Automatic annotation (TrEMBL):
<keyword id="KW-0732">Signal</keyword>
<protein>
    <recommendedName>
        <fullName>DUF4136 domain-containing protein</fullName>
    </recommendedName>
</protein>
<feature type="signal peptide">
    <location>
        <begin position="1"/>
        <end position="19"/>
    </location>
</feature>
Length: 223
């Protein structure tokens, strides 16, 4: 239930940022000051749209999304200063880790003027154990559809359009891929960098889509 709430909070905040101005304009730490990043596994919330247009979170799809993202980050090691990557948080810490990361992204997305953001206990401990000043966190969300589902939704949209004489015809969205990235500075408890990429009609499990979003997020900062 909490993960669903986090998803919608970030989703609506993101549209607010698009309608106004990107919230990435707050002071950040220059990229050349970050010589090593501790990259931790992303938190994912990817839903599968089933028959009847019903949305259901999928852990298996989330695992695929996580693996694709970590592979992409590793492949770009020459473009961003990766010091160490931790692809799997231990099982007994995973629930606490997810909760801390989700809360951080909500706070980062809703911050007003200050880049200060207190690093929660477990995350701080992980950074201490790995002797890391900077940590990179990622939150991947969105949805994809079961094969054949989109055709049914298009047909339904056309039917509604006919019944309403063209006054109302909902346009179904095929897929959505959202990626949020946050870099934190342990020494100053500040946001070093925060940016997101939101792509409608793009599959969250396609490598080329994730590559495009990776470039959108880091272009102009690390490269």
């Amino acid at each position: 239930m909490k993960k669903l709430l986090i998803y919608w909070i970030l989703f609506f905040c993101s549209f607010g940022a698009i309608a106004q101005k990107s919230k990435n304009s707050l002071p950040i730490i220059p990229a050349d000051q970050i010589n090593q990043l501790l990259v931790l596994e992303p938190v994912t919330y990817i839903s599968l749209i089933n028959k009847g247009n019903q949305s259901e979170p999928s852990d298996s799809i989330g695992q695929i999304s996580k693996a694709l993202w970590m592979d992409l980050v590793a492949a770009n090691q020459g473009r961003i200063p990766i010091g160490k990557m931790i692809a799997d948080i231990s099982d007994h810490e995973k629930a606490f880790y997810k909760s801390e990361v989700e809360d951080l992204f909500v706070k980062a997305d809703n911050r007003k003027t200050s880049p200060n953001l207190k690093i929660p206990p477990l995350l701080y401990q992980i950074m201490e154990e790995n002797n890391s000043r900077y940590v990179m966190l990622s939150y991947l969300s969105g949805f994809t559809r079961r094969k054949g589902n989109m055709g049914g939704q298009v047909a339904k949209s056309i039917g509604i359009g006919i019944l309403t004489m063209g006054m109302y015809a909902p346009v179904p969205v095929k897929a959505y891929s959202n990626i949020y990235v946050l870099i934190l500075d342990k020494e100053t408890s500040q946001i070093a960098y925060y940016k997101k990429s939101l792509l409608a009609e793009k599959e969250p499990l396609e490598q080329k889509v994730l590559s495009k979003q990776f470039n959108q997020i880091f272009k102009g900062y690390f490269f």
